[in-house]
Amino acid sequence: MKAYRLAIIFLLLAGVLAACKESGEPTPQPTGTALPGGAKLLYLWPSDAAADLYLLDPANGAVLRLTEGADVLEFSLAGRVLYFSAANAQGGSDLFRMHLDGDLVPQRVLACQRAACRSPQVSPDGQWLAYEYLQDDADGTLEPVHVMLTRMDSANAQVMGDERHETLDPSWSPDGRLAYYDVDAQTFVIYDPQAGTSLRLPNTTGDLGAWTPDGSAFVTSEIFYVQASDQIEIGPSRLLRYDALTGASQDLSRSDQAQDVGPAVSPDGETIAFARKFLDLERWTHGRQIWLMGVDGSQPRPLTDEPLYNHYALAWSPDGQWLAYARFNQEVGNEPPELWMVQVDDQNPLRLVIGGYAPLWVP
After folding, report:
1. Measured between alpha carbons, how far is residue 301 from residues 75, 222, 289, 307, 320 in Å?
2. In sequence order, which residues have a C-beta less than 8 Å from that of residue 265 and are 6 or more positions away?
3. I need a labelling partner for 118 at 20 to 30 A (CA). Which of 109, 166, 179, 351 fits?
4. 0.85 exceeded by pTM
């Protein structure tokens, strides 16, 4: 499941701080921490109403509001160009872009009327746009979600894979290949638009995955059912590293006692951050904790220890020194999610925004 979808589950969480509600904007406190390169953090706020995009400077707490009443659903970056989906007046959602080095005026890329166009993802060379398309038929029934692919200079879009199948979660490798999930076939598909070839990676879970920086591998989770006793079967979730050329998989988690999900690969390709929850009674917690391990599965180690909180939407800073993430209280249902960041070496987490979610770094 996508990180943003995990956040949407909690869109109805009530109660942002009174000061935030009065001002209509989040009011994070300065951290006093300078980030190399001046990296900023994009995110959505608030979690309990139609959301807008914000840009936060963690060094001083300054916040720039990028949209006003846009009802933004999801967003992505292609270099310094921001792409996002936002609800329209027809009940669907359109796709927009915004140049962060320009005048910050949203430009509509695709008008979808009653259909929902969402999850825009632009190829590294800027030539291709992939997105999810959900058509609302005249009788009110919903067609399967399809991943669509079009050239940026063309009005024609093609359906990825079998038109009878539901497909989700487009994401580009750094070298220009498109990964998406075929729900009906229970398979990740890696498509090369230049060569017109596809590689299929069998996977029953379909959780959002992450590319390594060199594009050589795709990391995602998979459930393996094992017999814990004569009467009990458990379903640990392991992280698998798929070779993007051959499809061969490597088990990184190597454990039957944990559920590992939400991988994020560091910019240098050496470390994977992920969310872990143990299944055995001795180590079980309400929420998933952030863990780190080598890209080959070596040296797994915890980064957070907050048993009541679920941690998700992990995002590496461009220099690989910081992790931004969202968390929510798994035990108390009326608290909003929060945005935090932590330096991976000192494990000293800093709270940034109450009611924010879906963090993404801007270099």
Report:
1. 30, 20, 10, 15, 17
2. 210, 211, 212, 213, 219, 271, 272, 295, 316
3. 351
4. yes
Residues in the chain: 363
Identify whether the C-beta of residue 67 lies closer than 8 Å to the C-beta of residue 106: yes
Q: Torsion angle, CA of 31/37/43/45, rounded to 10 degrees?
A: 40
Give the DSSP per-residue string, 98-123. EETTTT---EEEE--TTSEEEEEEE-
Confirm whether 242 is domain-assigned.
Answer: no
Mean pLDDT of 171-188: 98
d(CA 50, CA 68): 10
- Please count the structural domains in the chain: 1
Residue 215 belongs to some domain of the structure: no
Distance CA 349, CA 117 (A): 35
Closest CA to 52 of 62, 61, 63: 63
Cis peptide before 302 (omega within 30 of 0): no
Residue 216 lies in a domain: no
Question: Which CATH number is 48's domain given?
Answer: 2.120.10.30
184 in any annotated domain: yes
Task: Provide the pLDDT confidence category of residue 19 given band limits of 50, 70 and 90.
Answer: very low
Domain region containing 350: 3-209+257-362
pLDDT confidence of 233, banded at 50, 70, 90? low
CA distances from 244 to 197, 214, 284, 357 (A): 12, 10, 34, 30
Q: pLDDT digits over 265-276, tens only? A: 999 999 999 999
3-state secondary structure of 149: strand
